[in-house]
């Protein structure tokens, strides 16, 4: 009886593991292909902002996009970042005169996994808190598109989005635009997502990056 139960448990574990591996392979293969065969309606979009030049570059990128195709828009910044969401609000305020664009945005903050100068020992606890918070936000937002350009706060969101696709919860297309400041190598966030194949499209702004990372898309200088 016990042997039969053990064999059944082993077969169940093998079956589940095989299914998960197959789904991961499928998601990686499918992610590089267009999501729709025909022009879709508005897509709910999660926009990850970061301190320093990340937010300035993201705002410049959004300014040239067809914003009516990306709504509602959810802006997320680190809980300790007090400037990025203000800049996003200024952008959204400039769209208020356009009925089809304005009034479709929300602004949120997320806990950071690790602050600058924080010890690695204490960062274990804050990382768990950040992951839990990111999971709650992703369940709440369930975006169809995720747009990011380098801040570390995008990592837990993108990882959760990837596994949402694996388990069939929500299909979010992840687009990563590497910062123009990255000339010779990808940022740590970009490199991690690139190596793990968790992004649908990764864009670089320098040809030498394209030659070093062949799966990236070279789009020239956007800023």
Automatic annotation (TrEMBL):
Gene3D superfamilies for this protein: Glycogen Phosphorylase B
Family classification: Belongs to the ALG14 family.
Principal location listed in the UniProt entry: endoplasmic reticulum
Spans through the membrane: 6-28, 120-139, 159-177
Entry GO CC: UDP-N-acetylglucosamine transferase complex
Keyword set includes GTP-binding: no
Xref: InterPro entries: Oligosacch_biosynth_Alg14
Organism: Erythranthe guttata
Pfam families, alphabetized: Alg14 (PF08660)
Superkingdom of this protein's organism: Eukaryota
Subcellular location: Endoplasmic reticulum membrane
Keyword Transmembrane helix: yes
Identification of the protein by name: UDP-N-acetylglucosamine transferase subunit ALG14
Record lineage: Eukaryota, Viridiplantae, Streptophyta, Embryophyta, Tracheophyta
UniProt GO BP: dolichol-linked oligosaccharide biosynthetic process
Membrane protein topology class: Single-pass membrane protein
Record's keyword terms, sorted: Endoplasmic reticulum, Membrane, Transmembrane, Transmembrane helix
């Amino acid at each position: 009886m016990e042997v039969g139960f053990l064999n059944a448990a082993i077969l169940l574990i093998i079956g589940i593991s095989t299914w998960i591996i197959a789904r991961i392979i499928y998601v990686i293969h499918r992610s590089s292909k267009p999501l729709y065969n025909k022009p879709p309606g508005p897509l709910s979009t999660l926009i990850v902002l970061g301190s320093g030049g990340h937010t300035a570059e993201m705002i410049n990128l959004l300014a040239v996009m067809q914003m009516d195709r990306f709504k509602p828009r959810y802006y997320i910044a680190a809980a300790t970042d007090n400037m990025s969401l203000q800049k996003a609000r200024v952008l959204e305020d400039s769209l208020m005169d356009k009925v089809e664009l304005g009034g479709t945005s929300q602004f949120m903050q997320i806990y950071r996994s690790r602050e600058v100068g924080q010890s690695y020992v204490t960062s274990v606890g804050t990382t768990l808190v950040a992951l839990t918070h990111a999971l709650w936000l992703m369940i709440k937002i369930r975006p169809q598109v995720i747009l990011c350009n380098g801040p570390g706060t995008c990592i837990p969101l993108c990882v959760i989005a990837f596994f949402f696709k694996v388990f069939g919860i929500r299909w979010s297309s992840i687009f990563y635009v590497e910062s123009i400041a990255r000339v010779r190598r990808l940022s740590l966030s970009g490199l991690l997502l690139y190596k793990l194949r968790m992004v649908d499209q990764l864009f670089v702004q320098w040809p030498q990056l394209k030659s070093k990372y062949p799966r990236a898309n070279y789009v020239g200088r956007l800023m």
